[in-house]
Design a protein that fits this description.
Layout lengths: L3 H19 L10 H5 L15 H12 L21 H13 L10 H17 L7 E5 L2 H19 L4 H4 L8 E5 L4 H9 L7 E4 L19 E6 L11 H10 L3 E5 L24 E5 L11 E5 L2 H8 L26 H36 L3 E2 L7 E5 L3 H14 L5 E5 L2 E7 L7 H13 L2
Parallel strand pairs: 2-3, 2-4, 4-5, 5-6
Antiparallel strand pairs: 1-7, 6-7, 8-9, 9-11, 10-11
The structure holds pyridoxal-5'-phosphate.
The site of pyridoxal-5'-phosphate (PLP) has 13 residues, from helix 6.
């Protein structure tokens, strides 16, 4: 039996967490400077001697808690981030208590069984090829890395280059075509994989941030084409049905970054935005954005399971596992059972619940855009999804406005750049954000104009 001290400590952590949760509706969306300055309490030399765990925890609560960004609250509209669903948060607590090393059935039969089901449910709710492999990784970045590494391996092998034997140095050249508006993390992935700027071709995009089909460079069997479901400023979708069949016919690999936008597929009203997306080879999406799971939660989906698992296989002599074990589908070997929170979120919502949150975010965004126009803010996008992209009359006014709202702490959203000018972006991405929060956000914005 663990000691009373250990149990008391966990109880105290739970109390701190519950006290925090009770305040998320009222907390400042962003902490004020004094709370941030007080974080210097953590800036101490490495302790020579042990400290009581109680003291360690108290320090976190006393100085960490006040300086948190309340992205788990209803007034946060930054970066496509939202609060955490109760079922997902609770499941994640239990996962911490279990402390499973979830690389395979050997590491954790429980996690392996639950993640397998979560994978099937994801393919069902997102209506993607049911034979696909699903890897539960830490982020859309990590999952995109696994998908694009698989793409490169496949294309090189198709052109007769034995990558397993010869590696990538001196290999035939693989080109990557990306929309001009591609998310910065795709560049990060390509950089890590050894692609240089000469290997990356930016395809021109239209006023909505979507690739222009007629301007996509010639596709062939040494090309990876990255498309987007949910452009990060406008929330728009590339015209998959027009492009993907052509790309496939030319022998290219098509990857779709759907970090948040892939969830449109779970809504009857929005699914049409993703028509043809299921013809791609690989997809990534986040749990920690639209699905409101805790962070470090994303998925890599690959319609060719054996290609993903061959690229990522990590079968040690002491821990060999099936091709569909997570150790062979993700970057991690020792890993948290992060798919459990996705399973819990999906279970608690059900098909109708997922549909509802997608529609709710979209209708709130539409309302927000209407309200912005009414108070004289220039909305720049059509608001097909949950992103509202805005500008004021001049770049200076836009920048001052964003800073003024951010400093208020009442609501928070971020600046961005659109058509080479400062803009700002409101993203409705939290199940906690209700109609009244949209109204309050508009009232607050009006005060700063
Ligand atoms: C957030 C985001 C990413 C990166 O996702 P992470 O989980 O933060 O790595 C990639 N693409 C788009 C469109 C995004 O919105």
């Amino acid at each position: 039996m663990p000691s009373k001290d250990e149990l008391d400590l966990i109880t105290r952590a739970n109390h701190y967490a519950i006290d925090y949760l009770k305040t998320v509706d009222e907390r400042p969306a962003f902490p004020d400077h004094s709370k941030i300055d007080a974080l210097s309490a953590f800036d101490t030399p490495f302790p020579e001697v042990p400290s009581s765990p109680d003291r360690v925890l108290k320090l976190l609560n006393d100085f960490g808690t006040p300086a948190t960004v309340t992205s788990n609250g209803p007034n946060y509209f930054g970066f496509v981030l939202g609060g955490v669903l109760p079922a997902a948060a609770a499941a994640d607590r239990l996962v911490s208590a279990w402390d499973q090393c979830s690389f395979s059935k050997t590491g954790s039969p429980t996690i392996a069984a639950i993640e397998k089901v979560a994978g099937h449910w994801l393919l069902d709710v997102l209506d993607l090829p049911r034979e696909s492999a699903v890897g539960f990784g830490t982020s859309a970045t990590a999952c995109g890395l696994t998908c694009l590494a698989t793409a490169r391996r496949f294309l090189l092998e198709q052109s007769g280059w034995d990558i397993a034997k010869k590696g990538t140095f001196g290999a035939p050249r693989i080109r990557v075509i990306v929309p001009k508006t591609v998310h910065v993390t795709i560049y990060k992935i390509l950089k890590i994989l050894g692609f240089g700027s000469d290997d990356i071709i930016m395809a021109p995009t239209d006023a909505h941030g979507r690739v222009i089909v007629s301007k996509i460079p010639k596709l062939d069997n040494k090309t990876i084409l990255c498309l987007q479901a949910g452009e990060v400023n406008t929330g728009e979708f590339d015209p998959f049905a027009e492009i993907i069949p052509r790309a496939k016919a030319a022998g290219a690999w098509v990857h779709v970054d759907g970090a948040f936008g892939l969830w449109a597929r779970a809504s009857r009203a929005k699914k049409h935005l993703t028509d043809g997306i299921d013809l791609a080879d690989s997809w990534t999406t986040d749990g920690h954005k639209w699905l409101n799971t805790p962070y470090d939660s994303a998925v890599a989906i690959c319609r060719h399971p054996e290609l993903l698992s061959t690229t990522l296989s990590a079968n040690a002599s002491y821990a060999s596992a099936d091709h569909d074990a997570q150790q062979n589908l993700t970057l991690e070997f020792s890993r948290r059972g992060r798919g459990v929170a996705i399973w819990a979120a999906l279970h608690s919502l059900g098909r109708t619940g997922v549909n509802t949150i997608v529609d709710q975010y979209c209708s709130h965004a539409t309302r927000l855009a209407q309200g912005c126009s009414e108070i004289g803010i220039n909305v720049q996008n059509r608001v097909v999804l949950n992103q509202v992209l805005c500008k004021l009359e001049t770049p200076e006014k836009t920048q001052q406005f964003v800073k003024s709202v951010q400093d208020s702490g009442k609501v928070w959203f971020g600046g961005t750049v659109w058509n080479d000018e400062p803009a700002f972006r409101l993203s409705v991405s939290s199940w906690r954000t209700q109609e009244k929060h949209i109204k309050a956000c508009l009232t607050e914005m009006k005060r700063h104009l």
